[in-house]
Amino acid sequence: MKNNKILVWVVGVLAGQLNLSGLANVFRGTTLGDSGYVYLVDASGNLLYNSNPEGSSLQANLRTIPLVTKFLSSGGALADLRQSTYMSFWEKEVVAVAAPLRITPDYPWLLVVEWPTADANQVIATLQSRFILFLAAIFALIVLFSVFLANRI
Q1: Which residues in 11-50 are b (16+ Cβ under 10 Å) and which e?
Q2: Is the pTM of this model over 0.70?
């Protein structure tokens, strides 16, 4: 302090640039089922990266998507991370879930995973039919084994 004034010296300034081109490769190769995709949205709702082949070069603002709307209205936090179903930006009914990513405290991103319901339901139907087939096979084995044991008595 000099004469009741605080002296401040600027010692240096640091600037940097972060290359995120590696993220594009990660997103480009990511799928969920046959037609599910992921995308990354910034704190303004702008699409940063996505794995959807229909929108790979698309520059869009996704603030109308329900999960993105919740994210933006909460200031970058998502209290409700439950799965939801809605019409996506690409006009498909999807099952979706999202997770906020804190790159910096003032600049959050949102990772959204969307899976078209037709594709998701197909996987569930396949699992269901395989489970039923497995149960039928177990039941047939139990019947055969009990007939075998009954004939031995």
Answers
A1: eeeeeeeeeeeeeeeebeebebeebbbbbbbbbebebebb
A2: no
Q: Which two tokens stand for residue 61?
A: 């603002």
If residue 29 lies in a helix (H) or strand (E), which one and from where to where?
none
Q: Which of 49, 31, 30 is nearest to 39 (CA)?
A: 49
pLDDT, tens only, 40-70: 998 888 988 888 877 655 678 888 888 888 8
More confident residue, 58 or 95: 95
Q: What is the CA radius of gyration of the chain?
A: 26
Cβ(88)–Cβ(52) below 8 Å: no
83-105: average pLDDT: 85
Helical H runs in 1-116?
21-28, 66-73
DSSP string, 69-88: HHHHHTTS--S----EEEE-
Q: Are 114 and 96 in contact (CB under 8 A)?
A: yes
Cβ–Cβ < 8 Å for 48, 42: yes
